[in-house]
Amino acid sequence: MKIVKYLLVACGLMLFTGLANAQSSNDVTTEVAQMTKVLKLTDAQQETVTTILQGIQLKNEQVMKDSNFNETEKKSIISSNQQSKDNMLKEVLTPQQYETYLKMKK
């Protein structure tokens, strides 16, 4: 039973490490382009969304590299960062855009 638990933790670590490292600057650009296409972002919204996504990406990368946090703490912080991203996007997007964004995430 302990082996299964350790394997699950290891898989979770690999998943979060992969997610944090996979989102490069190109991924932010791609995500903004997709959001622009689907949500019809204005130029001003594109700039703000890019800044938000880059900031969250940087925070997540720093968390994943920080050996002071255990995996549970890292997962919690990244989850909190995701919620912060959603809250910031809610301030930038129109209500209809935000509703569509939430559907896109699923």
Report on the architecture of this protein:
This protein has 106 residues and is an all-alpha fold. The chain has one domain (2-105). 87% of the residues lie in helices and 0% in strands. The protein has helices spanning 2-22, 25-39, 43-65, 71-92, 95-105. It is elongated and about 40 Å long. Residues 1-8 have low confidence and may be disordered.
How do the helices and strands line up, and which of them pair or pack?
Blueprint: H1 2-22, H2 25-39, H3 43-65, H4 71-92, H5 95-105
Helix pairs in contact: 1-3, 2-3, 3-4
In brief:
This protein has helices spanning 2-22, 25-39, 43-65, 71-92, 95-105. With 106 residues, it is mostly helical.
The tally of beta strands, per DSSP, is: 0
| Distance linking N and C termini | 32 Å
How helix-rich are the residues, as a percent range?
Answer: over 70%
Provide the domain count: 1
Structural class: mainly alpha
The gross shape turns out to be elongated
Spans of 5+ residues with little confidence (pLDDT < 50)? 1-8
Mean pLDDT: 85
Please indicate the percent range of residues in DSSP E strands (runs of 2 or more).
Answer: under 5%
